[in-house]
Design a protein that fits this description.
SH3 type barrels; 5 strands; rod-shaped; 5 helices; 5-stranded antiparallel β-sheet; alpha+beta; 2 domains
Length: 230
């Protein structure tokens, strides 16, 4: 009767009570060893690399927001009071949301670059993360997430600020106030036109077609009426 044979490479003897194992077909290559070493280096430098990148992003985003706001709003109308209340409300909403989004994005970028100070000791790190290296990797992941949110928030802020500026450019101005038209009855007739002034005991009325205003002393004015047109 033939006896079964057991491959020593795929299993252990049942005497030691350990589960079967399988040996790898070949040892690690030089490329795989190099890749592993490079990965170890990248892992060790993950936190400083993310913080350095976040610092550059923070500086660039802050400069970009300053450039956009200065370059766009300086070309708008002379004052927001030149617009109606409804258009001012729209521009205010765009600007406020944009500024808040920009502040939040820059704050997250600052946190990603500088980190958040906290009291912690080695035993806490070991208990929670398993080691200092794992703690640094976790901090790098947190900083990377904050940087992603910072970029997204600043992008939203730029869209809102540009929308506010474009709305400011194209918002219709306040309708012009009607001029002060007056009709003054005098002994020599009625004078009707735009009231330029009323001082030094005389009215000065700009009559259409005349190059200079007509002066009417108070004593000569028998009746003064405000009219919509002459």
């Amino acid at each position: 009767m033939a006896s079964a044979t057991q491959d020593p490479q795929t299993s252990q003897s049942s005497a030691d009570g350990l589960p079967p194992y399988q040996k790898p077909p070949a040892g690690p290559t030089a490329d795989s060893v190099h890749d592993r070493d490079r990965w170890e280096e990248l892992t060790d430098q993950s936190l400083p690399s993310v913080q350095a990148a976040a610092e550059k992003w923070r500086t660039g985003l802050a400069a970009f927001i300053t450039l956009v706001t200065a370059g766009l709003f300086v070309k708008g109308p002379a004052a927001a009071s030149d617009m109606t209340t409804s258009w001012r409300a729209v521009i205010t909403a765009f600007s406020a949301c944009g500024l808040l989004s920009a502040i939040a994005g820059l704050w997250l970028a600052l946190q990603a670059a500088a980190g958040t100070p906290a009291r912690i000791n080695l035993s806490q790190i070991t208990a929670k993360y398993g080691g200092v290296r794992q703690f640094e990797v976790a901090c790098a992941l947190i900083a990377s997430g904050r940087l992603r949110w910072a970029r997204a928030l600043v992008a939203i802020a730029l869209v809102l600020l540009v929308s506010a500026a474009i709305t400011w450019w194209w918002a219709p101005p306040l309708p012009p106030q009607p001029p002060a038209m007056v009709s003054i009855d005098t002994p020599s007739g009625t004078v009707c036109g735009t009231l330029d002034s009323a001082d030094n005991h005389a009215f000065r009325v700009q009559v259409a077609g005349n190059s200079s205003p007509t002066r009417i002393p108070y004593a000569a004015a028998r009746n003064v009426r405000v009219v919509a047109s002459c």
